[in-house]
Amino acid sequence: MADAPPDLDTQEGLRDAVAKLDPDFQGLLERKGVPARTQGVLSNLGVPSISKFAALAEAASDVRAFAVDHCQLVRGRDVVSIASLVDSWQACTTRMQVRHKAEAEATVAALPAPVNKVEAQDLKVRFEQMYYKMEDKVAPATATLEHVFDQVEAGEWKNMALVQFLSKDDADAEPLAAVIDRSGNVRVKKGHGETKPPKTPEELRQRLKLVGHTYVMTQLKFPNRAVLRGLDPNIFMKLADYLLGEHVHGLSAKDEKGEVISRPSFELVLSYEYQIRKFATKAMNEGTPMITALEEGMKDTTTKERYFLTPTSMGGASAVREYRLKSRSPRRGDSPEKGRDSWENRSKGKGKKGKGKGKKGGGKSFHSRTPDGRDICFAWNNKDQRCRYNCGRAHCEALRSFTLKVLYLFAGAERKTSVVSYLKSMAAKKGWAVDALEVDLKRGDHFDLTQVRQYARTSNFEDQGTDAYPPKLDEAIAAAIMAEFSGPSTSGSVGGGGCPEVKGQSSGVVPFEPGRRNQRSSGTDPDENGVDKKRKLGESPLDKSSDVRSREDSSGEAESVPVESPARAGHGVPIRCWYKGKERSIHDGGGLCSPGRWPVKQRRQLSSESALGLASCCKGEFLKWVLSICNKKGDAVKEVFWSLAGGKGLKSPFSEVIQEARESLDRKLELLGKSPRRRSGDRCSEVNFRRLAAALEVVEDEDFEWLEAAASSGVRLGVDQTMPRVPAVFEEKVKWNLDFTDEEFRDTLACNYRSAEENAEDIERQVMEEVEAGSIIAMRTEEAEEKYKGRLAVAALGAVPKELGSSVVRIVHDGSYSVDINHRIKVRDRMRFPMVDDAGGVLLQVEKEVEEAQGAMRCPILYDISRAHKLLPVDEQDWGLQGFRLPAGKQEGTVFLHTRGTFGVASAAYHWQRLAACLVRLVHRLGGFDLGLLHLLFADDGWLTALGPYFWRRMLFWLFCLELFEVPIAWKKVRGGLVVHWIGYQIDVQKFTKGISEKNVKWIVEWLERHRASGGVTGRDLKSALGRFSFVAGALQHVRPFLGPIFAWAAVLSPGTFAKFPEAVAVLLDFIQGEVVKEAMTRPRRLESRPVEKFRVDAKAEADLIVIGGWEIPASGRTEDARWFSIVLNRRNAPWAYLKGEPFRNIASLELVAVLTAIMLFGKGWECDMSRTVMSLSASTDNLGNTYVLNHFMSCKYPLSIVVMELAVQLKRLGLEMDLKWIPRDQNSEADSLTNSEFMGFDSSKRIIVQFEDLKFEVMDKLMAKAADLDDEIKLAKSSKEAKGDRPTESMHKRKRGQTRWEDPW
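Predicted structure:
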């Protein structure tokens, strides 16, 4: 009995029916606009291919009749659908006429039937929908598909050599051949070309990947062939792993010393690979599935012994013999045979016979001394003599230098050191010469590939081995060029560039990295789970999305190592921002794989039918709500939005329809085979975790499985357990603020803090409300001790006022000091919250989209998630770890246990952030293009921004989706407007600026005036205020340098000490106040183009002589056309440079003074439109430390801190932003010459003659002397503390914190 056709009234049935159509036919119907249901009807009617549909009718009228009679279409209603069907039939008829003719000609000529480009492209699209995006270098050429398809149709499989598998890159031009047909006419036919055999392991892996893609596309073309069933690309990757593993290519023979004396040749590996596929081909012709046949081929001992082991052993024996003949002894060259390294062979000149003159050894040049002056032993170097090792000379090679040729390419992070300069310095010590070309592919003005290729060929680079040319070089160049358009690549090359396999595996030069020990390894960098952190061999640097791979250490945050997301959530470059002098992608609160990190138009959209259906369901329910309120009043939706933006939304605007919408969503998810409804045994929570997990699974999210466990039993706190690791969403955390303990856990009952005792009534009220809500349970102390024996931690409570003068307090659960819970929780994922820098990146994106749309409407809106940390239920096993007692003896003998996440426990924030990231990614994917927006989520504070004539619908849809999954929103806190206050910062989307509000400015002014009037400040109050000043500096970068000396002074003040402001600190605070009052809002730093290098500088300090010099880089790049300066500093015009004794001790400050002088002398001539943005420029110096100073834009050291302040003021005044780059000293020779009074190559008429004392500094003259006094005071205080032993200890972490936050709120 035949199977019943799929039910077209269900999504699954319709999908199954359409899937039965041939790919080329289904693609044709799709392009012609034939509805999916009509496609399903054709499938059920048994019309799966172009040929059958073309043969169905003889005229268009017959097709129209067929559409009405059999395809369930109505003439008057479905006119367009019928026309699409007729259009498809005409296209099929035309194709089949051409195809029949081509097949007939091919049959007559005994050639494979041609595969049209449309069909090949359809198969490629089908493949990419099922697996992953296929690059042209591993996509089979049409000619290759034709030959494999011909084998299927002929019913006989033939083994093809690897050179016969052509990729699209290999077959850019199709090979043509001339043949004589049976009638005697000469005809031109398409031939079958061949490519080069693989020469490296990487090329072999890539070629096998191409072979796998070929057969998988064949399986898609012939889905009913039993031999191809179950085939996927991984089977050939398994073959590659086997061939390149330790049992084949990695096999080696070692001598008694453990040295490798023999390895199988790569040609032998290729031969063995061919025999494996030949074995599989024979089995396939006997009916064995390809997967089974390949696995049996790899396991077949006869094949391996005959074609690999035996040839390897025979080659190994000769290799051992050669190895022994070449082995070195105290007497060189005892062997009767001359090895290739013997002196005779080395003495030959050009050609085989050589042209050396004179006696033996003629034509060779020898060293007589080592670089350190020792005599070289010539007896040891002479095969006819023997040295007894008592001559006292050096036993090393005497042969004179040779030329080391190096091609060094990189395309990743900018090199901090020159590999070529280090090579030359090292080679000079050995008497070698270095001929090197160093190419920065990413930052070059252009990509002159001709120069690179020509150099590689003329230098006779090896074309075999790990560093093969040209495949590796081509891949590095491709990655470099793509990095220009797709953001920075984190793939490693020699030095961190674009060629992933070279780093750590290079048989050539290993680059020098300052501060790190050079290592030569096998290329693996396993993490604690044994997984290689580096990119696997064979993966392209363009396959995966990543952020800048660097250790970024932000204040108060743990250090982490960014890792790559497994799939890009968008196309092209993500939204970028500047953070501490570095460019990076924004963090939006949705994790590394969040679509929100890309502009709306560049985000990857849902592709599967189930995901699209889910998004359509959510949008449909939202549309129902829109229509329901629009029926009452036309502009009702806008009124709802503006009511929320005005802060008048006291309750959800979706309350009347949300329950029905949730029910509709559940039904949709159930149709898709999911279980979205709550279950009887589930833990109580506001959020419907099962509905959320089901929706995330449908949209193929990276992190949804954990939600099922959260729904049924809750999350674990992670005390003395391994916390989860989600590399697709979070970066790896590698540094923690708290120290961890390995001591045995002991039950603890801590006493509450005084603040809790003083607010016992309000604390009891809040706790009772939580008990009633079920988030806290009460239990007798004896019962708790028995039930949670060995895992009971009753922490101390503290209390702080929520608002100034309010009796309502915020309860603080101390999981760090009263109990050591947090010292046992090791969160392994780093939480990345968006900051003001990310807000700046979003503002730039909004401005760009507004310009493109010529003034698009926009209005942001803010929202807040209620009780965010308490939304996650905690596993009952860990309730005992979240215990506390009421203060003031209330309900004595009772212990209260939190059953939800608790603020004060280290993992609570992590669990909430993981949940929030899931929500952010889901809503972005459900919104798609039409309802997409920009969004940032910091903890539980969200910022939504949308553009366009219906921007409010996008933001209302976001809030509607949160309601669908029962996320509690604090509606009374929802508000919006062109100017909003988010996480303490003021954001203006009309002027595209960020900064601090008038309220914040007023606080700073009042704080300064109050403490000026009192004559000083306590250490506690100063430290509290500095936190707020640092917050201000986050938005106003030019203020940041002025905080350095204040931090240094605050560090030596005891918390309770009242101190008068030093003169320098008073001046700094006055300047900060003036800048904040004058300009509280600034525009974010633009990322339009790479900064242009404007000048190079240097400084010289020898004895009492100080000289600074620099030259402006003209358009021609020639020093003759450049403006330049060379200025002498002395004790009269720069006394601060001599305060440490000899001026070279202040060389970093002097180098930065040179930069400052160049800005002041050259900057006036640079064009800058201040109404739009600032100008970005780049400068170069050979002082590496100063690049870090300017990246952080702050220093606490004198006098460097004062120079940084002056530089900040001058840059702000000129409207400039600068990136200071480090270059090696040998590349900065022109500026170095200026400091040595060597002016050759410079035009004297272009010299800017100025005295240092004539430069008009804004703050440096005023502050230098006062800052020197402050520096002396700080040093004295430090030395006094050291003498008294009053050093900070671990116990000081328990000090009383400043009360500014609660007594004087921001």
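Summary: Residues 79-108 form the longest helix (30 residues).
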